[in-house]
Amino acid sequence: MTTAVLCALTLLASNVAAQESAYADLDSCVKSEQVTATAKGAAVGALTGLGASLFGGMKKNDAIKATALGALAGGGIGFVKAYYEATNTCYSKNPGWVPASNITRSATLAQAKKAAKYKPSEGIKTSIMDIDMPESVQSGTASIPMNTKFTVLTPDDAETPVEISRKIYIIENGKEDPMPFTAGKSTEVKTFEPAQHTDTVNFPLSSDFKPGMKLRYEIQMKTEKTPVVSKSKTVTII
């Protein structure tokens, strides 16, 4: 085995170890925040390995898996909200733990213009084409893919900043409640070249979601010169 290969393998092993350590720190923080919430009288549910869920089902450390810490009044939806609020608190205290956006170009400028039947006289145009996510998932699923395909077009083919907002709502018995978005930044401004792009999200699913509950994902986009455009989809836990 060559020295270059050995160095590459060593670097890979080091990166994996660092990621696993970060996931463990995040899960530990979430557990601690849930315990604090319990002491204050908040509803708390069972923990899941958040770090592994966010990054596509990486193997969880058995030591990080936690059990139910207890429950007060408020029902299942209170357990779920407590989990995401604890996660959001950990992100607020450790901004470096927030997952980075994963946005890639998915079609050329020419293809995007043709699909949108775009004319320069329309000015800057931002449109959300679709959200690719399942209609239902089994209870206990680690994460839900929520991939949004959108187009940004400008009359002079120049780059333009776009504000992206991502929102999550829990629905139970017809009642909808907002939750913190914990799969990345809830709001950010990014500069895009004119083309079709895909925003890839893996939203971690709390183990406290019960069959019959629903999760609605909404994404909004706007520029300084264009109004808000939005689209949403709902997934049912079965």
In brief, what are we looking at here?
By secondary structure, the protein is an alpha+beta fold.
Number of strands: 12
Instruction: Please state roughly what percent of the residues sit in beta strands, choosing from under 5%, 5-15%, 15-25%, 25-35%, 35-45% or over 45%.
Output: 25-35%
Over the alpha carbons, how many angstroms does the gyration radius reach? 20 Å
What level of helicity do the residues show? 25-40%
Q: Averaging pLDDT over every residue, what do you get?
A: 80
How many individual helices? Answer: 4
The structure class reads alpha+beta
Distance between the termini: 49 Å
Largest sheet: 6 strands, mixed
Judging from the principal axes of the Cα atoms, what is the shape?
A: globular
Order of SSEs, N→C? Answer: HHHEHEEEEEEEEEEE
Low-confidence stretches: 8-19, 41-49, 58-74
Annotation keywords:
four-stranded antiparallel beta sheet; 33% strand; 12 strands; 29% helix; alpha+beta; six-stranded mixed beta sheet; single chain; globular; 238 residues
Explain what the structure shows.
- It contains 4 helices and 12 strands, in the order αααβαβββββββββββ.
- The protein is an alpha+beta fold.
- Strands 3, 6, 7, 8, 11 and 12 form a 6-stranded mixed β-sheet that branches. The chain has a 4-stranded antiparallel β-sheet with strand order 1-9-5-2. The protein has a two-stranded antiparallel ribbon with strand order 4-10.
- Helix 1 crosses helix 3 (75-93).
